[in-house]
Write a structure and sequence with these properties.
The chain is an alpha+beta fold. It folds into 2 domains: 50 residues, no CATH class; 190 residues, Alpha-Beta Plaits (2-Layer Sandwich), CATH 3.30.70.1070. The chain is 56% helix and 16% strand. It contains 10 helices and 8 strands. The chain is elongated.
Length: 342
C-alpha cells in the first residue's frame, strides 16, 4: 500500500458487547481515465470476437400442416344472374308480373294483327269471287300451270274434214238441235264462229271420206248435213319442257289418222291394226311424263279415249259413238286455243 493511501486511511474503533473491534475503511480513489480506456479495449475485443464468431443454428424440422377438408359440404346451386333493382322475393315477384304482363300484351297485339290481315285477305278474295266467280275458280289452276310451264309450244294450223249439221243464230237453238241429234245416236259439238253457232256431228280423215260419209248419213234420214273442211289457225300452249312439246306435236299429227279409221268403222269397215297400235303406243309413252297444262291434259285425254274406244269399236255402236265424240271434243279444245292465241 502506498503512502498516499496510508495518509488517507482513518481508524475507527467500535465496541460490541464491551469488546473493541477494529474497523478499517478504505477509501478507494479510482483513476476514471484509465478505467475508461480499459473498458473501451475490452469492448473492442468483445466486438471482434462477436464478428469472428460463426453462428450455427440447429436444423429445425418443419411441421407439416394437415390439409383441411370439409366433411359435410353441400355445393350451392348456381342461380342465373338477374339484375335486380331491389332485394327480396317480393320485389322480384313484381318484376316477373310486369314482364309477363308486357309479353302478354305484345303477343296479343301480334296475334291480333295476324288474324286481321287474314280476314282482310279473305274479304278481298270473297269480293273478287262475287264479282267474277268463273275467273276466281280458275285462278288456282292458272297459277299452277304458270308455275309448271316453262316452254312455249307452237300449235300448227289444222284443216279438219267435218260433217256440219246446221248454223244457228243463238247458242240455245244450237243446243236444242244438238240434243235431238244426240237422241239419234250422233256425236255433237258446237263452235261459235263469226257470231254464229255451228253444229258438227263427226270428223273424217280427209274431205273425200267426209263426202262419202255425208251421203251415207243422208241415206239414213238426216237431210240437213254437209261435208266441209274446218280451218283452224296456229296457236300456242305452255308446256313443261321441249320434250313434252315434241310429244304433244306427235299426238296432234296422229289426230287425222285416227279420224280416218273412225269413218271406216262408221261405214262398216275394219280398223287398220298398224294405225291402232301406233296410237296405243303413243298414248302409253306419255304415262311417265304427265302434262301440267289443263288444255294439254284435256287434249291428251280425248285422244286417249278415241284410241281406246276404237280398239273396242268392232261391231259396237256405243264405242263407235265414243270415238266420234272424243274427236269432236278434241277439235273444239284445239279451236278454242287457236282463237285465244290469235
Amino acid at each position: 500500500m502506498t503512502k498516499k493511501e496510508n495518509s488517507q486511511r482513518s481508524t475507527i474503533k467500535i465496541k460490541l458487547n464491551g469488546k473493541e473491534r477494529p474497523f478499517e475503511e478504505k477509501t478507494v480513489v479510482h483513476d476514471w481515465q484509465a478505467a475508461s480506456e480499459e473498458t473501451s479495449a475490452a469492448s473492442s475485443e468483445e466486438m471482434l470476437e462477436e464478428e469472428e464468431f460463426e453462428w450455427i443454428l440447429p436444423d429445425e424440422e418443419e411441421t407439416e400442416i394437415p390439409e383441411f377438408k370439409i366433411n359435410h359440404h353441400t355445393e350451392s346451386k348456381k342461380r342465373p344472374y338477374f339484375h335486380r333493382v331491389g332485394n327480396g322475393p317480393f320485389k322480384w315477384g313484381i318484376k316477373k308480373l310486369v314482364v309477363s304482363f308486357v309479353l302478354a300484351i305484345t303477343v296479343g297485339l301480334l296475334l291480333g294483327t295476324f288474324v286481321l290481315e287474314i280476314m282482310k285477305k279473305e274479304d278481298i278474295q270473297a269480293t273478287t269471287t262475287a264479282r267474277n266467280p268463273v275467273a276466281a275458280a280458275d285462278k288456282p289452276g292458272e297459277e299452277k300451270e304458270k308455275a309448271n310451264a316453262s316452254y312455249k309450244a307452237k300449235l300448227p294450223a289444222m284443216s279438219v274434214p267435218v260433217l256440219q249439221a246446221g248454223v244457228y243464230s243463238s247458242n240455245e237453238n244450237a243446243e236444242s238441235a244438238a240434243k235431238e241429234l244426240a237422241n239419234q245416236n250422233y256425236a255433237t259439238t258446237i263452235l261459235e264462229m263469226d257470231g254464229k253457232y255451228s253444229l258438227f256431228i263427226g270428223v273424217a280423215g280427209d274431205l273425200q271420206e267426209a263426202k262419202s260419209w255425208e251421203k251415207n248419213v243422208k241415206e239414213s234420214g238426216l237431210a240437213d248435213v254437209w261435208a266441209k273442211e274446218l280451218s283452224i289457225g296456229e296457236g300456242s300452249i305452255q308446256l313443261a319442257s321441249k320434250e313434252q312439246a315434241e310429244q304433244f306435236l306427235k299426238e296432234i299429227n296422229y289426230y287425222n289418222s285416227i279420224a280416218a279409221e273412225a269413218v271406216k268403222v262408221e261405214m262398216g269397215g275394219n280398223v287398220n291394226e298398224k294405225v291402232l297400235q301406233a296410237g296405243l303406243q303413243l298414248i302409253d309413252s306419255q304415262k311417265d311424263a304427265t302434262y301440267q297444262n289443263k288444255e294439254a291434259v284435256n287434249l291428251h285425254e280425248k285422244l286417249q279415249t278415241a284410241v281406246e274406244s276404237l280398239e273396242k269399236s268392232s261391231g259396237n255402236q256405243d264405242e263407235i259413238l265414243k270415238v266420234q265424240q272424243a274427236l269432236l271434243d278434241y277439235m273444239t279444245i284445239y279451236y278454242q286455243l287457236s282463237s285465244q292465241s290469235s
